[in-house]
Amino acid sequence: MKKSFQVADQKSRCPWCLGFEEYVAYHDTEWGVPVHDDKVHFEFLILESAQAGLSWATILKKREGYRKAFADFDYKVVAEFPESYVQELLQDPGIIRNALKIRAAINNAQRFMEVQQEFGSFSKYIWGFVGGKPIQNRLASMSEAQATTKESDLLAKDLKKRGFKFLGSTTVYAHMQATGLYNDHLESCFRFSEV
Predict the structure, then answer these.
(1) Catalytic residue set
(2) How sure is the predictor about 10, in pLDDT bands with cuts at 50, 70 and 90?
(3) Is 27 annotated as contributing to ligand binding?
(4) Binding residue per annotation — 185?
(5) What pLDDT is recorded for position 1?
(6) Which domains does the chain have, with CATH numbers?
(7) Other C-beta atoms within 10 Å of 125: how many?
(8) Whole-structure pTM value
(9) Residue 17 annotated as lining a ligand binding site
């Protein structure tokens, strides 16, 4: 059995983050914090779609590689990536070298800006799916956690209709958790009352 990373401060945390130091830091400072900044939403859309079929830990370890490869998550720049750069990215060990996912990121940047144009911001659009405030799930244990919700189903369906790729309901729900549309910290976690 794999041993969990030991955190010196002994705070009660969601057990999924106890793998390595960066994972704990991500949990303690970012995961579940309500995001209203479009650039941050775009970053998580890129990372979450890259995660499809992989672990979040794998993506988190490559986050800096993604930051460099994807123009510090500037969606206006990513939307204009030429095919020649896609070929460069396919050789970049700092990211997941999957042509479909790389091309999906470029496509999603273009669709992202279309949503901004229609709604004024991507944040306004996405927060509309939860009534503008975080849903508090009040989980007592990880066994109560869901893979999808009715809101993630609706959002994923709408994103697909708008032409987004690699953003099914499970991936979308992970995005909603990461960006604070849901507070899915366990009630016993010290972050539950902080986010």
Answers:
(1) 26, 48, 56
(2) confident
(3) yes
(4) yes
(5) 41
(6) 35-183 (1.10.340.30)
(7) 20
(8) 0.93
(9) no
